[in-house]
Design brief:
The protein is α+β, with helices and mostly antiparallel strands and 173 residues long. The protein is built from four helices and ten strands; from the N terminus they run αβαβββββαβαβββ.
Length: 173
């Protein structure tokens, strides 16, 4: 009888572990491709340089949207839930990669209006340039109609990079 108790304990422990894993079936990896240029016409230019990999570790197809959280110098924060116009679907036990070309026309509806504080929003609108400094972009997969339900671990889908203004080349004759 003593050997059955540890066995059942392991079964129960494994059951809780499995339930926890199935709660967040997607894994997201993000990478902002260099060069990290400070100038932009709109946020589509910024998103176009981002490479994203989404892996579905579950045995079922998953419908998801993305939540973005970005930070930068001077307290810049950008938070947007359901930032794609149309949710995406990924097949069971599969991976999907997105490059800059995939984001063109994808309906990624991020604008300067999503940037806080107001001083940073105005700086971006007037200058069409990001400030020098360290930026971090994080993406989290979420349930489209319930953005509070996360399908991936938020800290896994992050990439940080620096933007700096380069000096103009000096041509000596």
């Amino acid at each position: 009888m003593k050997t059955k108790i540890p066995f059942f304990g392991l079964v129960i422990l494994f059951s809780f572990w499995s339930v926890n894993l199935s709660a967040q079936p997607l894994q997201i990896t993000i990478h902002k491709q260099p060069p990290h240029l400070p100038h932009f016409d709109n946020f589509d230019d910024v998103i176009g340089d981002v490479f994203i990999s989404v892996v579905n570790t579950s045995n079922v197809e998953v419908e998801y949207n993305l939540k973005i959280h970005a930070t930068g110098p001077n307290g810049l924060v950008l938070d947007k839930e359901n930032f794609l116009d149309v949710p995406l679907t990924i097949a069971a036990n599969s991976a999907r990669n997105f490059t800059g070309e995939d984001w063109d026309g994808s309906g990624a509806n991020i604008t300067e209006d999503d940037v806080l504080p107001e001083s940073e929003r105005q700086f971006l609108r007037l200058n069409r340039v990001f400030r020098e400094g360290e930026y971090c972009i994080c993406l989290t997969a979420i349930v489209p109609d319930h953005p509070e339900q996360e399908l991936s671990i938020p800290t896994d889908g992050c990439d940080c990079f620096a933007i700096s203004y380069s000096d103009a080349p000096v041509i000596e004759i």
